[in-house]
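To assess whether the prediction recovers the assembly geometry, we first specified each molecular entity separately, as shown.
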Amino acid sequence: MPDTFDLVVIGGGPGGYNCAIRAAQLGMNVACVETRATLGGTCLNVGCIPSKALLHATEIYQSANTIFPKLGVMAEDVKVDLAAMMKHKDASVEGLTKGIEFLFKKNGVTHISGHGKLLAPGRVEVTATDGLSRVLEADHVVIASGSEVMGLAGIEIDEERIVSSTGALALKKVPDHMVVVGGGVIGLELGSVWRRLGSKVTVVEFLDAITPGLDAEISKQFQRTLKKQGFVFKLGSKVTAVEKKKNALSVSVEPAKGGAGQEIACDVVLVAIGRKPFTQGLGLEDVGVVVTPRGFIPTEEFQTNIEGIYAIGDVTHGPMLAHKAEDEGMAAAEMIAGTAGHVNYDVIPSVIYTHPEVATVGKTEEELKEAGIAYKVGKFPFTANARARVNLDTEGFVKILADAETDRVLGVHMIGPEVGNMIGEAAIAMEFGASAEDIARTCHAHPTLTETIRQAALGVDDRIMQM
Ligand code: FAD
Ligand code: NAI
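The predicted structure of the complete assembly is given in tokenized form:
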């Protein structure tokens, strides 16, 4: 006898677990199927959470050696205990994944351990690790199977010397030299972790700039800052092979547009050239769910081409971000329940958790130019912000782009201290359709880093007061 539910969610990551909880809140009988032993998906197990644990710990270590003495805090002989740092990271992951178990129990979501496969619309077979299988029946099935690491042709990831982000989060020793393939978010965050711990880090990026898609002015400043910190960049370059020697790796790097190559010796290579949707073993072809040539499941209002089967998060279009998956999970549950559900794709913030941080929301200058939209720019540097100055943390700036005619905020781009927390203000302003004048007239507490946003908003109308 199959078990019956109103909704079966395949995948227990930020998309799946939030969808399951929201649906249960709305009165549905929900099951969430997850292959991994723990809930939380890529984000909690091998993504957002472990990477931020290491970024935070290593940033404090670096500050102890650089900023602390300037503040009169003499933390002499500060050492790293890598095993203890990793233990903290693992404990954080364990605590948070158990937290999702708790939330499932609290909301009455049934957690089913095993691999989910669609047999037909409304029928999902779940095979547990012991090989036993059962069939679930549901009116609705949400696919939230996430994404996986994109490999580099001819280069085998062993997760010890040639690693993906997963291996880079669990190295047992600090590499002497790490070569990072891909100057995107993962490469720069995890490159920062190991550089702070003492590695030389060389980033090989195919394009002529790092972090494609970021506002170009922010990207340029970001690269300059990372270079000052010791990152070595080989832009417009590609890795064609990695030869494993007994005690070293030899990386073949060539100019992307052709020409003479070079060999770089290192002990760890991190492959971080993007992620791809994960749909293996889901049975999509058997039930006729369409996928794009790049493997994504296209949807309209979260529904696939098959009625009653939905897709959310990394496995479908849009940015591969945990909070985007979460938003889609909530909205899909609400729509399935027959209430209003909505995701505003124009206001999805994005943060790179390096130091300084990078945080953006909305349109970049390049996108506005391409769309032929006239805009005004307001900019304010952290060097002129009182709080940043007393903290000795003044690198970066805030830039606000507003419609030239209506003054409506179209994009906010920041590089600087704690901007990852500050971007929430910009997102709320944009959700409410704020003008730059609205932000400029909002009282901001003094002395805070957020005053930088107000001054940048004043700058849109050319009336910055504090510089
Ligand atoms: P996932 O989190 O990938 O979850 C999918 C789950 O489905 C997995 O647990 C998988 O085991 C399960 N599954 C797949 N197929 C089946 C099946 N057939 N049956 C049962 N279960 C199945 N994003 C941010 O917003 N902020 C960050 O700071 C951030 N940092 C990151 C750092 C790293 C190193 C990485 C790799 C990613 C990071 N991301 C970050 C991206 C973020 O992790 C993803 O966008 C997010 O996890 C996507 O959520 P999801 O629910 O769509 O998929
Ligand atoms: P990415 O898309 O951010 O960056 C990949 C980089 O590799 C790009 O700059 C690309 O031009 C380059 N590249 C591609 N092929 C190459 C090649 N053959 N040789 C050299 N360079 C090459 O992907 P990344 O960093 O792997 O991250 C994957 C996803 O995870 C991202 O979509 C991101 O959204 C998400 N993520 C988010 C984080 C956050 O929000 N803070 C942190 C980490 C990951």
